[in-house]
Each structure stands twice: as C-alpha cells, then as structure tokens.
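Problem: given the chain below (140 residues), write out its structure.
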Amino acid sequence: SGTSHTCAIDTHNAITCWGSNSYGQTDAPAGTYTTISSGTSHTCAIDTHNAITCWGSNSYGQTDAPAGTYTTINIGGIHSCAIDTNNNAICWGDNSYGQTDAPAGTYTTISSGTEHTCAIDTSGDIDCWGDNTYGQTDAP
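Solution.
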C-alpha cells in the first residue's frame, strides 16, 4: 500500500490497483508479476521475467527502474530499491538523504522507509543508509 493507493497481485499474477490516481498510481500495467511494492505515489513490480516495471509519480526519477533482472523490490517514500539476481542492492529516485546510495555488497532482503533503506547482507548483517535523524540507520 502507498499513501493513498493500494495494489495487489491476483491469483492469475495480474495487478489490480485502487484508491487515489492523482499521479497514475492506480494505472497498473498489463502483464504477469510476482512481487509488488508501493511508495507515496508510485508503485513498482517485478514481472515473471524478473524485470521491474514502475508507474505513478516520477518527480524524482522513482519510476525510472534500471534495466536488469531482480529478485525482490521494496519502495520508500519517493525512492525505490531492489536486489538484482547477483544479490546487489540497487536504488533510484530521491537521494536527498543518501537513501539511494546503496553500499557495495551482496544482499538477501531489502526494506525502505520514507527516506532511508536497510538490507540484510548474505552474511546476516544489517546495512542501512539514508536519513538518520532518529537513528533509523544505526542498525544493531
């Protein structure tokens, strides 16, 4: 779910979205998908060929998904992050607080907040980057 819209993948792997469509965030693309995540006013999904498609507001490039193949995606407020099939963290969109400056390394999962992101690397450690106003990137 985004701020004022929601999207889901149905049992036929198609996407349905509802709610506010002020930025085209409920105009889901055709195709078949395995994973979906929504931000403030945009959504991205990984299709059955492991490519990313994004739609909705693109005021900071948050829907300009890089080419490649991906295993997981998680969307922040106005930035987007994913893990590619080589286990690299890739982020794009608003970088006002360094939230798209993913560290080098290999990762298994990723989670984005409004202006920060954290990921678990392949050794089980947590790496976080972006806004740290409230200590949100000081992983234990």
